[in-house]
Design a protein that fits this description.
alpha/beta; Rossmann fold; Molybdenum Cofactor Biosythetic Enzyme, Chain A; 3-stranded antiparallel sheet; globular
Length: about 425
């Protein structure tokens, strides 16, 4: 079975696709919805449409166009959405539904604390609308899944997979009956990996016209049912990364990222620079731009690992994230080839980094922890092929950045402790 994943940001594309890489699929993440030679032989292709900041209408149109361009016969569609419902996910799903059949909506990701109960998302047991991330970007808006779908013109029904998690056949029969009835979107309550696994089993070989809509949680359960691991793939997953300075770019301002940075500084002894937003807003026009660029170059040329973060000030606006991320990538672009590995936190930051480095495709190799993917540029002609780790901003344990750093240094915690 071949899988096409369509995501609205780069870190999401990678954290969804990594489950398939771990199961032995040759898995490629691409920045452009255009088939190229790099995609030949891939079992799973994840496309970043970069629609998070577009209008709902623009996002729906670009998503549908990506599906039309990248879909092939015998391939299943997985629409990756953010597990905390950020972006234009409902409009994108509504645009795909007319092309791909019933939308099976299950954004739960229990391994990262996301569950769906009563058609609503909970994050570590807290209702989504009460979380700091939601209040920061969506204050006053409903976090109810059905309400968002309805606003996009897509009526829905709801099914509790937890009640049928021990009987995938009965779950499959319910889903197929609803599809035959003409249901356009089915919201599936799932609070555990057990329920997600049952949903994957119930739908994987179904003949019904449908597509999956979810986060990395359901994706990894689907992948686990289609393992293709070989000795060669095991060897790739244990890849040795080229060595050299590790550059960590953090565009996310979430509390999760703050804790991850703190552990990396404390355990890794990594040098940290926090770039004032004012410098990034003005870019090359700012009087301190060149000084910052030179400071980054001095650190990397000297062989030091560098944690580079976007600061925060009173003028901060969540809508400027893409602009600040692009400026951060431009700041390091002249020095990118000095790195042996790059870690990017935040989808906009990760995409900006790859665009600046002229990397259009990544082959995913392994998973550092749930949702934290490591890969390499997929271009045999490249002279500089660093290891690349991507991670969503508000994702992962406090240990995530430190573990990613160790991975790119070809070390374990035991190695680090013995230094």
């Amino acid at each position: 079975m071949k899988i096409l994943i369509i995501a609205d940001d780069l870190s999401g594309a990678a954290d969804c696709a990594i489950g398939f890489a771990s199961a032995g699929h040759r898995t490629v993440v691409t920045l452009d919805a255009a088939r190229t030679q790099a995609h030949e032989g891939a079992d799973t292709i994840a496309v970043d449409t970069d629609t998070r900041r577009l209008t709902p209408q623009e996002a729906a149109a670009r998503t549908a166009a990506a599906y039309a361009e990248m879909s092939v016969r015998g391939q299943r569609l997985y629409k990756k959405i953010d597990s905390t419902l950020r972006g234009n996910w409902a409009a994108e799903v509504a645009g795909l539904q007319a092309l791909a059949g019933m939308a099976i909506v299950a954004p739960a990701f229990p391994a990262t604390g996301r569950a769906v109960r009563g058609g609503r998302v909970f994050v570590h047991g807290e209702p989504l609308e009460q979380t700091p991330t939601w209040k920061l970007e969506h204050a006053g808006l409903s976090a109810d899944i059905a309400t968002q779908l309805e606003a996009a013109g897509l009526p829905s029904e709801r099914l509790d997979a937890e009640a049928l998690r021990d009987d995938p056949q009965a779950l499959a029969a319910r889903i197929e009956a609803l599809a035959a009835k003409g249901v356009r979107a089915l919201i599936v309550d799932t609070q555990t990996e057990h329920a997600l696994r049952a949903l994957a089993r119930a739908t994987l070989h179904s003949d019904a016209a449908f597509f999956w809509v979810g986060s990395g949680g359901l994706a990894r359960e689907i992948a686990a049912l289609d393992v293709r691991r070989s000795d060669a793939q095991d060897s790739e997953a244990r890849a040795v990364y080229p060595g050299g300075p590790i550059l960590i770019l953090v565009g996310s301002l979430s509390a999760v990222s703050e804790r991850q940075c703190a552990m990396l500084r404390e355990r890794g002894g990594v040098e940290e620079l926090i770039v004032p937003p004012a410098v990034l807003r003005e870019g090359t026009r700012h009087r301190d731009w060149r000084a910052w660029q030179e400071q980054v170059g001095v650190s990397l040329k000297g062989g030091a690992d560098l944690l580079l973060r976007i600061g925060r000030d009173d003028a901060f606006d969540p809508a400027e994230g893409a602009h600040l991320s692009a400026a951060l990538a431009a700041l390091v672009e002249p020095h990118f080839t000095k790195t042996g590995g790059v870690i990017a936190t935040g989808g906009e930051t990760a995409r900006a980094m790859l665009v600046a480095a002229r990397i259009g495709n990544l082959q995913l190799l392994a998973e550092v922890e749930a949702g934290v993917a490591v890969g390499r540029p997929l271009d045999a002609a490249r002279a500089h092929c660093p290891g690349v780790v991507t991670k969503a901003g508000a994702f992962g344990t406090d240990h995530a950045l430190y573990a990613a750093w160790l991975t790119l240094r070809n070390e374990t915690e035991r190695d680090a402790a013995s230094r």
